[in-house]
Amino acid sequence: MELKRGQMAQTSKGLPENFTGDVDFVLLHAAAEPARVSCANVTFQPGARTHWHTHPLGQTLIVTAGVGWTQCDGEPIAEVRAGDVIWCPPGHKHWHGASAGQSMTHIAVQEGLNGVFVEWLEPVSDADYAKGPPV
């Protein structure tokens, strides 16, 4: 067994090539092969969000605090709140982040395929983001 104490976790900022706005990222676990699961605690400040992306084996998001938005390609933006769980199927283009008026934290769990966990795509435009639910 490997025990990782929470106080030892390192926080890093979301990279601007993958995120818009202020995002804090804590890698909770990255399994060594042959296992292929990784998970992170991600906090988005109001207005912050991922770029569009896909996951080769899907992604589970567990919202732990705040109010956020998520969208799958071709669907309307959905509001998510603490306690909600979102499943993004393999290869499904989507984004997620905070609402315009509140921060949001989630735990992201994803599996890698041949070492690839995510394919980053284009940013979510401000105009598209502004189509979210009223604040």
Q: How is this structure best summarized?
A:
This protein is mainly β.
The counted number of beta strands is 12
* Uncertain stretches: none
Rg over C-alpha atoms, rounded to the nearest angstrom: 14 Å
The rounded distance between the terminal residues' Cα atoms is 44 Å
Question: What is the quaternary state of this protein?
Answer: single chain
Briefly note the structural class of the backbone.
mainly beta
Strand composition percent: over 45%
- The arrangement of helices and strands along the chain is EEEEEEEEEEEEH
Question: CATH top level?
Answer: Mainly Beta
In this structure, how is the largest beta sheet organized?
A: 8 strands, antiparallel
Q: Tally the helices: what do you get?
A: 1
- Architecture (CATH level 2) name: Sandwich
Shape: globular
The CATH homologous superfamily is termed: Jelly Rolls
Number of domains: 1
Topology-level CATH name: Jelly Rolls
Whole-number mean pLDDT: 94
